[in-house]
Amino acid sequence: MTVKSKRIPALQGGKSIKPGGIYWMRYVIPALLFYVIFMAYPMLDSIRLSLYEGTAGTREFVGFANYVRLFTDEVVSKRFWNAFGNNWIFFAYHMILQNALGILFAAILTNRTMRGRKFYQTLIFIPCTVAVLVTGYLFKIMMNPQWSKAPLESVGLGFLVHSPLGWLGDHGTALSAVSLVSVWQWVGIPTMMFVAAFQSIDDDLLEAASIEGASPWQQFIRIRVPLIIPVIGMVAILTFVANFNAFDVVFAMETPEGAPDYATDLIGTLFYRYGVAGQHPVGIPEPGLGSAISTTIFAMLLCGVIPVLVKTQGKE
Predict the structure, then answer these.
(1) Phi then psi dihedrals of residue 256, to 5 deg
(2) Where are the beta strands (DSSP E) in the chain?
(3) Which of these, 25, 62, 151, 264, could form a disulfide with 53 (CB 3.0-4.6 Å)?
(4) Alpha carbon distance 10, 16 (integer Å)
(5) Whether 225 contacts 218, CB under 8 Å
(6) pLDDT band for position 280 (50/70/90)?
(7) Which is it for strands 16-17 and 60-61: parallel, antiparallel or unpaired?
(8) Contact 205, 239 (CB under 8 A)
């Protein structure tokens, strides 16, 4: 007895599509071409560029000299490890505070007894739609004692004024201030992802747990959170990658030099100074060294992302 393969009726033309065919390639190829042209090729070309020294027209192949300089040159190495350490602090604020708030907000917003859930979802997400440069500039003004001291003192919030340098001018508070502004702006992204994850959980599981006597807290810790581990892993990866590519928030609130005294210098601003604008006071860009910085960080990101993917994705 022979079994004929079923055919799926086509939308147009009266033809049918046989399962297992390669017709799907016509939908994949445009996205694949876009990825290769705008993502894969620039990344590979950056690796190639890291093996050269000089600007366009005067480039000379130097092998791994840029990488050696990155880790052995007294000035460059100091700046790199300082930015690398600052980036971990910046990431910690987002990973611990932003994502924890995202889970908390999502748990509250998926409570069926809560009124106005759509309104609060919109309210939390609105800052994500504002340009980072606009947000950074506004907070820069609000954190400037010359602008904010009188208004805050008039409403009894004078203790928030960090005089005389301000939150952004103090070496000990500048990075925390920038990080918290970034957390405030982007907390809506993980919140929406966690809301979608919580909403996908079968209500029968929670009802069964409630019948068995599980408290809301026990349901949250032992049922809801374990079931969204893959989403938590994906959010962690997105946070990790985005934070190590951060540039605009520091550019808007401080300077590309990571003022004050490199306290807010991140990998993104370090790359910009060396690879694009040129490090002060020389001001001559070094694309080779900039590419070495970006390639090194790419390798580090890869080493951090793969274990998280393996650990969290695919779990049922």
Answers:
(1) -60, -15
(2) 8-9, 16-17, 52-53, 60-61
(3) 62
(4) 5
(5) no
(6) low
(7) unpaired
(8) no
- Within-domain flag for 288: yes
Distance of alpha carbon 311 from alpha carbon 123, whole angstroms: 33
Sign of the dihedral defined by the CA atoms of residues 227, 309, 35, 239, in that order: positive
What is the CB neighbour count within 10 angstroms for residue 110? 17
CB 264 within 8 A of CB 250: yes
CB 238 within 8 A of CB 249: no
Tell me which residue has tokens 């033809």. 15
| CA gap 99, 19 in Å, rounded | 41
CA distance 290 to 306: 24
Look at residue 49 and tell me if it is in a domain: no
Q: CATH number of the domain that 280 lies in?
A: 1.10.3720.10
Asked whether the predicted pLDDT for residue 300 surpasses 60, the reply is yes
Bridge partners of residue 60, in order along the sequence: 53
Considering the domain boundaries, does residue 82 fall inside one? Answer: yes
5 in any annotated domain: no
* pLDDT recorded at residue 214: 87
Going by C-alpha positions, the residue among 185, 200, 221 that lies closest to residue 110 is: 200
Give me the domain span that covers residue 98. Answer: 60-312
Contact 133, 248 (CB under 8 A): yes
Inform me whether the pLDDT recorded for 2 exceeds 60: no
Domains held by the chain: number = 1
Q: Give the CA distances from residue 94 to residues 80, 113, 181, in Å, rounded to whole numbers and listed in that order.
A: 21, 29, 10
Give the DSSP letter string of 27-70.
Answer: HHHHHHHHHIIIIIHHHHHHHHHTTEESSTTS-EE-TTHHHHHH
